[in-house]
Specification:
It contains 9 helices and no strands. By secondary structure, it is mainly α. The protein starts with 6 loop residues before the first helix and ends in a 9-residue tail after the last helix.
């Protein structure tokens, strides 16, 4: 079961981005203040070196931002694909229940429906750990019943052919659920997020310092840089939080909910 112990992960992404923006603006002003002081005292004479350092810091920040955004996007896409694969696996198993004669067919369909409802409840639980655990236990219970029924029927001569098709489908269904559950645990490491935050703060200071040395501190442009950086970082964090963020997996998760229409068929 998914339990995120990281304080960084459990902190609201919007709050983190807002705090980052405020601190970036503060360091921007601090850099401007230091730049003014250095300019007055004449201690800042290595213009070419300062420009090189600023370019290096901005390049590092751009690299970390692009790398982190790519990681978040890849994990989001994997979760989306896992949802669709699980829906396909469950749908295949449900359809193969039709290979059995009544009453076994009806018994399979009842358990499959309860299993599907449990998986839907698992995804609809959001970040509520207790609801997720309850739904996961219910899904495991019904998947166990389905597998036990299939293995018992496989020992019967008249169910040998359906069993040879049903058991692999059930295994694939259970494996797909595990891929989906563990896929939610794979997220951007906290160390990379902290490095991204640190580099953004250092950039804010150097931008403020360097803009003054160039002869003018354009607050609109520099604050705009901080705001844009915070917004991109927020989007990066949000992509990695499919249960609590604004960017959700509603479309791919709907593919599992749509499986309920299979039970309307006679």
């Amino acid at each position: 079961m998914i339990k995120h112990e990281s304080i960084l992960y459990n902190t609201n992404a919007a709050l983190l981005s807002l705090l980052l923006f405020i601190v970036m603006v503060f360091l921007l002003e601090l850099g401007s203040f230091v730049g003014h002081r250095m300019r007055k005292t004449g201690e800042d004479k290595n213009n070419s070196i300062n420009s090189t350092i600023l370019a290096a810091v901005l390049g590092l920040f751009a690299f970390l931002l692009g790398f982190t955004f790519s990681m978040s996007g890849a994990r989001f896409e994997n979760r989306r694909i896992n949802n669709v694969n699980e829906a396909n696996a469950i749908g295949t198993a449900i359809l193969r229940a039709n290979l059995y004669a009544k009453p076994e067919r009806d018994s399979f369909r009842i358990d499959f429906k309860q299993y599907t409802l449990a998986r839907i409840a698992y995804f609809n639980a959001g970040s509520n750990i207790s609801l997720m655990e309850a739904a996961n236990k219910k899904a495991q219970f019904h998947s166990g019943r389905i597998f036990d029924r299939a293995t018992v029927n496989a020992t019967k001569a008249f169910s040998l052919f359906p069993g040879n098709l049903m058991i692999p489908a059930i295994n694939n269904m259970i494996d797909s659920a595990n891929y989906n559950d563990y896929g939610e645990k794979f997220r951007v490491p906290d160390l990379i997020i902290l490095l991204l935050f640190s580099s953004s703060l250092v950039c804010a200071f150097f931008v403020g310092y360097h803009s003054v040395r160039k002869g003018g501190f354009n607050r609109t442009i520099t604050v705009g840089f901080c705001l844009l950086s915070a917004l991109v970082i927020y989007t990066t964090l949000d992509l990695d939080r499919s249960r609590t963020g604004l960017i959700k997996l509603n479309t791919s998760q709907q593919s599992i909910a749509d499986l309920l229409t299979l039970f309307d068929q006679p």
